[in-house]
């Protein structure tokens, strides 16, 4: 038994010696390949050394060389993973300071990329903060480039500040010029010049713009300026403004909708009643917008192609509106005559409230029978005349033939309207 154990230890020592000798040979070959510029073969050799003997000093340097080479090849993600694994595997490595320096360089490159994205979006303040954060992490080769970008950001921010000042001055000059024109003509009140440097209040500025309607461009310019400078504050004030005005606006909208629905039902019902009383076909068209114009034409005994006149008038500004007014008056005068009313009341369709009265008057009232004027005696109804039967000339029991149906002849009329 002792002999077997002794042989086992001898074989294990030989295997370890051979294993270590193989790792050393592979490591030397990899370093030689790296010096000759054969990077791919060198990386394969270093990785093989780490796999064969991960606890040896060869693996320490081999893993560092792999991370360093990946960093030089700009494979920053793989380099970061390799170097972080090196710090965990070899906390006492002589290459620790170099590994930490490379990790800082990778971190600075990530920050610089984010700063470049902010620069492309014209967020120069954010880009400046990121460049300043990356500066202490960057290596000596990257620091001049980062300093140059910091200088560009500072210049861009200064230029933006000057442009904002110029825009503010232009706004103030425009308002002052407008005030001078208003004061010269004395037609409107002078608009107060807003102070762009005081604390911004969205509610106050909105009320100011509503009071002076021609000053909306200045209000929008000021809101845009403050949105860039204090986005969080403007957003909070906007939410507060919405929470204040929305409970007031919703009942107003509901009330307007209810009034509009009542007007629609009333007008459609009146038009349908008028169509029924004038025996117009398709009275249900009164409930369909725009097509109810066809029903108006039928009631007024006008051709339906008049609806094309309405379409043409809708396409012509100002003059078309006047043309629609003329068409409405003509149609409603004809409708008034169809309901046996005076035709002049059709003009009421142009006046608010009076047109509602006109619709109800024509729909829900009937014409009274004509009464004789004063001083004219009423004509009594004619008494029936008894006609005695005559004997027939054709003999008893036979009736005389009926005369043919001839059209009635109108007697000649003399001058003066007398027969």
Structural description of this entry:
- The chain is an all-alpha fold.
- The chain contains 14 helices and no strands.
- Among the domains are: 139 residues, Tetratricopeptide repeat domain (Serine Threonine Protein Phosphatase 5, Tetratricopeptide repeat, Alpha Horseshoe); 38 residues, no CATH class; 108 residues, no CATH class.
- The longest helix has 47 residues.
- The radius of gyration is 51 Å and the shape is elongated.
* CATH fold name of the domain at 17-155: Serine Threonine Protein Phosphatase 5, Tetratricopeptide repeat
Q: Please, how many helices?
A: 14
Mean pLDDT over the residues: 74
CATH architecture of the domain at 17-155: Alpha Horseshoe
What is the distance, rounded to the nearest whole angstrom, between the alpha carbons of the first and last residues?
165 Å
What is the radius of gyration?
A: 51 Å
Tell me how many strands there are.
0
- Class derived from helix and strand content: mainly alpha
Report the top-level CATH class of the domain at 17-155: Mainly Alpha
Shape: elongated
Please identify which CATH superfamily of the domain at 17-155 we are dealing with.
Answer: Tetratricopeptide repeat domain
